[in-house]
Amino acid sequence: MESKMQMGVENYQGKILSGQYSERLINRVREQIDMLLAFERTATQIIPYMCAWQSDKKVIWYEHAGQQFCELLQCDLSTLAERFRAAIIDQRVYRYTKRKHKVEEKIITRDELFQKSWKGLREEVEKSGEVDAVYQVSLGGDETIWLKDQAIIESFEKDDICISVGFLSNVTKEMELKDLFEKIGYIDELTRLPKRHILDRIIEVNMSNLQRRNIDDFVLMMIDVDHFKKVNDTYGHLAGDYVLSHLAEMMTSTKRKHDEIGRYGGEEFYGVTLGTISLGLKFAERLRKKVAKASFVYEGQKIPITISIGLASATQMADPDSFAADELIFMADKRLYAAKESGRNRVVCDDL
Question: Is the pTM above the cut of 0.85?
Fold first, then answer.
């Protein structure tokens, strides 16, 4: 058998390569460690790892882990599993539920994770073949971080061993912002979009950038679902909730990275996009056409949905360098009304 030095794992502290296991398992572990070592050499911020366990036992050990992981928890590989287990505060799992048409957060406490439900959780990931979770981890004192874990599970029945090969990424900033947004009521529960009261702030920031000439223009879109009352009356309010949730997903997937989409209230949404009114018009038309062609199906019933959109750009204001947010909202809302009055399922970007 090749020596550990020849395999590129001279600092190997795992169990499998030195144990009495099948050639298939040993070769797979060797192959994965070589791959993870090559990945580490790219100097990425993502932490690679491979852990293993026997299906009928609680003990997990690491066959390999990025040096950052050990440094983060101030331990070596041989004690990493124990140290990580002791540091976990809770686990968060996010799942999209079709019944409620939203992403639900499941919080599993450390007691549930390591005492009551370890076997069930192991069986679940072995069955699904993957791990996708976020861990809240204590680094001592009041310092905590959030680590996102994404991994693929492989089972080796002959050896009664499962291995998990994956990557950890630090998502502390994102999770702290999520918690903050929920505390201040930033996120709309149904659509998972920013609420109305954040719009003024978005406009203020863009106005400031416009005044400093960091941007040339920006566009506000007011978006309304056509005949939404009829949707509720005909198909029920749960169907209406489904339409709003599905529409929010479509708008989010259509926007560019630096665009903003939010829920203004009821069946009305807003969007803020950087660029000229002509660019805003192209974005709005792309969105309008996508919605008109989309299939909204609730409990087997197809629901026809279209939207109307009113646009207003900062440079269309009487004084582009000095105006209140409500003035821009008023102009976009006025054009939204014109779009609905002139037949719906259309975009209006100037005064008719």
Answer: no
